[in-house]
Each structure stands twice: as C-alpha cells, then as structure tokens.
TrEMBL record:
<dbReference type="InterPro" id="IPR003961">
    <property type="entry name" value="FN3_dom"/>
</dbReference>
<dbReference type="InterPro" id="IPR003343">
    <property type="entry name" value="Big_2"/>
</dbReference>
<dbReference type="InterPro" id="IPR008964">
    <property type="entry name" value="Invasin/intimin_cell_adhesion"/>
</dbReference>
<dbReference type="InterPro" id="IPR036116">
    <property type="entry name" value="FN3_sf"/>
</dbReference>
<dbReference type="InterPro" id="IPR013783">
    <property type="entry name" value="Ig-like_fold"/>
</dbReference>
<feature type="domain" description="Fibronectin type-III">
    <location>
        <begin position="1"/>
        <end position="72"/>
    </location>
</feature>
<protein>
    <recommendedName>
        <fullName>Fibronectin type-III domain-containing protein</fullName>
    </recommendedName>
</protein>
<dbReference type="Pfam" id="PF02368">
    <property type="entry name" value="Big_2"/>
</dbReference>
Length: 162
C-alpha cells in the first residue's frame, strides 16, 4: 500500500511525519510518502498521519483514510506433469498450484473427452477408454488463467499366451 500526503508548514520546520494504521504508529518518514507492506488481502485498514515539528508539539492526527486491499491476482496455473500416459482403469492425480503463492489456490478441472478419461473436482483422472484427452486446469477466481495436461490412454496389454 502506497500512501502520500501534502506537506505541512511549521515554524522551525518539520522533522518527520508519523504514520498510523488502525490507531497504532507504524513508522515515521522524513518525506510525504509511505509504503506499507505485509498486509492481508481483502482487508480494510484505516490510516492517519501527523507532522512532528523540529520544535514544539506534534500536529493533530489527520482525517482517517480507509483503504481495502485487493486480492492477489492469479498469473499462472502450474502442474507437475504436462502429459501423462495411462492404461484403461488407471488413475492419476494432477497436482496443481496457482502463482503467485498469495493468489487463491482453488482450481477447476475439465476433460475434453470424458469417454477417454474423467477428472474429479480434486484433479483425480480416471482412464476410461483408449484415446487422448486434454485436461484443462483453470484458476477458479480467474478462469482465463489456465494450463492443460495431455492424457493418452492405452488398452491394457493382454497377458502373455493369449
């Protein structure tokens, strides 16, 4: 969170400005700007500033500024394997993460051919019939951020001697 404010004039000059978040002092600055970090997503914070003069008492606190942080925007979906070969009847767990790490980690899974392989809401692929399908793994909060896993399903090898 980046804050800035107008300079104030005091006889004898300004030593620094003190910044408050939710009623508690969080630091001082010589200039008229302050960067606050380590904030929680989707949370409202209240900021105030006061001037500390070189001589005399500090100014009263400024009017309160209420700011709500945004959610971290997903930028990519990552999977451990971009392709997998299975045999009919096999299962495979897709492990997905969303970047950056602060973004919502919930994803959705869809199969382009459920006749070939199905995928559960938790990413468990079940091979149904020989063929190929694409599993799309998308960010739940931003579906345009997605990746795919190519699934090839083979028929089981018949036992020797048959």
């Amino acid at each position: 969170m980046s804050l800035s404010w107008d300079a104030v004039a005091f006889n004898g000059g300004i030593k620094e400005y003190e910044v408050y978040r939710d009623g508690l002092s969080i630091g001082t600055r010589v200039g008229t700007s302050f960067a606050d970090s380590g904030l929680t997503q989707l949370t409202t914070y209240k900021y105030q500033v006061r001037a500390i003069p070189n001589v005399g008492d500090p100014s009263p606190l400024s009017a309160e500024l209420s700011v709500t942080t945004l959610a971290t925007e997903p930028t990519s979906v990552n999977v451990t394997e971009s392709s997998k070969t299975l045999t009919v009847g096999d299962t495979y767990q897709i492990n997905a993460t969303v970047s950056p790490s602060g973004a919502d980690q919930n994803v959705t899974y869809t199969s382009s051919s459920t006749a070939t392989a199905t995928v559960s809401s938790s990413g468990l692929v079940t091979a149904k019939a020989a063929g190929t399908t694409t599993i799309t793994v998308a960010s739940k909060v931003k579906p345009s951020v997605k990746t795919t896993v190519a699934i090839t399903v083979n028929e089981p090898t018949p036992p020797a001697g048959e």
